[in-house]
Design a protein that fits this description.
About 30% of the residues lie in helices and about 20% in strands. By secondary structure, it is an alpha/beta fold. The chain binds 1-deoxynojirimycin.
Length: about 750
């Protein structure tokens, strides 16, 4: 099974030649067969499915992970069909297979390409062992609405962060050589704009002007295409009246003509037939026509292509060249995966799932995916040697399934190490722990266990509350309108606080939450996306100072739900608020019929800032930024310049910090965001160490889609900021000259 590495350019020509000669041998029906994906899913191949594969009417299957069944499916395709084309075997391997990494929203908190790539590599190896050769990840939808359940699968609110981490995930899944038995094809989804669903209701309509589409939502997809992603999936949603699955502008004009994408585009689950439900097409035949002509190569699960494409070609409505192109895109990926050489899977040739390497990657990923939101009076880390007793309270302290998060079809909860188990095994015997679940689930309003929780808190030296959301509260079709801690958790925090003990909240969630009603009730908050299999040991490492938190928020945490959408890279507006211009409800003069400070863009009851900004995250060390500078204060288009600042670890412990570069383009042919992330670096500093952090930025990095919707850097003035969050004030200025 070993592969030799070949020159990529010659490989492309070779693959294209092989695609062309295979297409020349195929009938129209066989080509259309490649364009159909069927669901298997129950470790059983029905006769009608076997017949369809033998007849060359299936190009791909999904949801089968029993390797013996997968090998049987491949045998039907390779040995019993006329042309012998192996199958793409798809599965949602979203953040791990058996070994579960933090949810993507959690991984985004690491701001670390390396750990995202490493986690994806583990996932690819474990999935490949089951015969899976294609995953539907990464999801790189820019997500600015925390009500949306699928924000859990995203890298958050920022197109640059999503581009960087999305590309790292693609690299981890596909590896250097996609034909290696340890690699699987990635799928960037959902093309495009799915995250902009109205009111965060999954599947709801999106209305995205072209300029915003290009400057925000398409950017991570362009990065993924440039990074070599093999496949893309369309979005379920309606975009400005034309659902993504029939959107010729996105699928042809942008993806093929502008970006030269030569991989395969798959629909989402039955989203072709849903064109009728959207009200775009009259019947499934029209839906097949719209999707195929728009550029969807493969239909996931539905049967509109299988039933109608051949007839549409025969009637002269669909050009046979279009079918050749679609089938060719699919075959190209099969060749690149090396499936024609190695269609079968030998699980024994791959490392076993859950091995030491996989678990240590999962642990490291979880450690780096924790954000220390606040840490008053240095409540954290806890010093185990000075504690006699510790109360561990809450519905997520010992919830092996919930800590895995959403989309874990193959995740094994029995492998999970919970915070309760990890803390008990890591603490010295001298520390007594008392565990009170207090609420049966995160949603529960049953307060019967609260007295016991308060009693445990009173009799302990410190309290750790394990709060958040169960896994089922986020993910596909799991949106929430209220994003406070669910159930009676806020009440639990208030009651436990009565004990007057140092109180730490560990929050595990599938989305940004509104924490205004608990933030002042606790001394420290450690905030995580569902952390996966090794969440417990990672949390224990962080609580007891074996590791220092280094995560940063990939999305703003709103004060209240009415502020949504709230994201750092907003436009300035014509009436921007400042702390001086904001008058909150309680301060309004009862005798005035106007605000004394003028009228600006903010909420009377929430102000204009989030509770915690994008990029925020504290450390047990103290990091200070100073002396921002430029190598020169002007550059021409086509040039680069270096922006740098001193980063100082003003503490007595070694720790890592994510230094961030933001740029503001002061004016443009279209208005520009108040800040945009343009670079970030994870830096580890010794106690007392001072290091110059440098970012090189070129005029291409300043390019945006202007009034003509073309990508260009426009000369003008820029501000640059370096710091530990999007709220940093450390600023310098430069000019871009023509
Ligand atoms: C629907 C989801 O939207 C998509 O992300 C997923 O990959 C498919 N179902 C397959 O499960």
């Amino acid at each position: 099974m070993s592969q030799t590495s070949r020159d990529p350019a010659s490989l492309t020509v070779e693959v294209d030649d092989r695609v062309a000669s295979l297409l020349a041998e195929m009938t129209l029906a066989e080509k259309i067969g490649q364009m159909s994906q069927i669901n298997i899913g129950d470790s059983y191949i029905h006769d009608y499915q076997a017949d369809a594969i033998r007849a060359g009417r299936v190009g791909s299957v999904l949801n089968e992970v029993d390797v013996r069944v997968v090998n049987r499916l491949q045998r039907l395709a390779v040995e019993e069909s006329r042309v012998g084309i192996p199958l793409l075997v798809g599965r949602d391997v979203i953040h791990g297979f058996q070994t579960v990494m933090p949810i993507p929203f959690g991984q985004a908190m690491s701001w670390n390409h390396d750990i995202v790539r490493a986690g994806a590599r583990v996932a690819a190896r474990e999935a490949a062992r089951s015969g899976v050769n294609w995953t539907f990840a990464p999801m790189i939808d820019v997500a600015r609405d925390p009500r949306w359940g699928r924000i859990a699968e995203s890298f958050g609110e920022d197109p640059y962060l999503a581009s960087e981490l999305g590309r790292a995930m693609v690299e981890g899944l596909q590896g250097d050589d996609m034909a290696s038995p340890e690699s699987i094809a990635a799928c960037a989804k959902h093309f495009a704009g799915y995250g902009a669903a109205e009111s965060g209701r999954d599947y709801a309509t999106t209305n995205i002007p072209e300029n915003e589409m290009r400057n925000v939502y398409l950017r991570p997809f362009k990065a993924a295409v440039d990074g070599g992603v093999s496949t893309l999936m369309t979005s379920f949603s309606d975009i400005d009246g034309v659902p993504a699955t029939a959107n010729e502008f996105l699928l042809r004009e942008v993806l093929r003509d502008e970006w030269n994408f030569d991989g395969l585009v798959v629909s989402d689950w039955d989203s072709i037939r849903q064109l009728c439900v959207h009200g775009l097409t009259e019947n499934d035949e029209a839906a097949a026509f719209e999707a195929a002509t728009a550029g969807v190569d493969m239909e996931m699960h539905g049967d509109a292509y299988a039933r109608f494409l051949e007839g549409l070609v025969e009637q002269g409505r669909v050009n046979p060249a279009l079918i050749d192109a679609a089938a060719g895109n699919i075959l190209r990926i099969k060749f690149r995966l090396g499936l024609f050489e190695n269609p079968y899977t030998d699980p024994e040739a791959l490392p076993p799932p859950g091995n030491a390497d996989a678990l240590s990657t999962a642990r490291e990923a979880a450690v780096e995916s924790a954000v220390l939101l606040k840490n008053e009076h240095r409540a954290l880390p806890l010093d185990a040697s000075s504690l006699e007793s510790l109360a561990l309270i809450g519905p997520l302290a010992d919830a092996p399934r919930d800590q895995l998060g959403t989309w874990v079809f193959d995740g094994d909860p029995s492998m999970s190490i919970t915070p309760l188990a990890a803390i008990r095994s890591q603490l010295p015997g001298s520390v007594a722990t008392e565990y009170v679940r207090a609420l049966p689930t995160s949603r529960s309003r049953d307060v019967a266990g609260f007295d016991e929780a308060v009693a445990a808190a009173r009799s302990s030296d410190a309290v750790i509350l394990f709060l958040g959301e169960e896994a089922i509260l986020s993910g596909e079709a799991h949106s929430r309108a209220d994003i406070d801690l669910p159930g009676a958790q806020v009440e639990l925090v208030r009651r436990v606080r009565e004990a007057g003990k140092p109180t730490i909240a560990v929050i595990m969630t599938g989305r940004p939450l509104t924490l205004s009603n608990v933030v002042d009730q606790v001394d420290a908050i450690l905030f995580l996306g569902h952390p996966g299999t090794m969440g417990g040991p990672a949390i224990a490492d962080l609580l007891f100072g074996v590791a220092s938190p280094s995560g940063k928020l990939p999305a703003s945490l709103p004060r209240m739900v009415g502020q949504i959408p709230i994201y750092y890279c907003q436009k300035n507006t014509g009436k921007p608020p400042t702390p001086d211009t904001v008058v909150l409800l309680d301060d309004i003069d009862p005798n005035a019929d106007q605000l004394s400070t003028g009228m600006t863009a903010y909420h009377l009851d929430a102000g204009y800032e989030p509770l915690f900004p994008f990029g925020h995250g504290l450390s047990y060390a103290l990091f200070i930024y100073e002396n921002i500078g430029l190598c020169r204060d002007e550059m021409h288009i086509g040039e680069t310049l270096t922006i740098s600042a001193d980063l100082i670890n003003a503490s007595d412990r070694k720790a890592a910090e994510v230094a961030q570069l933001y740029v503001r383009d002061l004016y443009g042919s279209v208005t520009r965001p108040v800040r945009e992330l343009k670079g970030f670096k994870r830096v580890e500093l010794e106690p007392g160490e001072r290091r110059r952090v440098e970012f090189e930025i070129g005029s291409d990095d300043l390019a945006f889609y202007g009034r003509d919707n073309r990508l260009a850097a426009e000369p003008g003035e820029f501000h640059a900021y370096i710091g530990g969050s999007s709220a940093t004030e450390l600023m310098t200025a430069f000019r871009l000259l023509a």
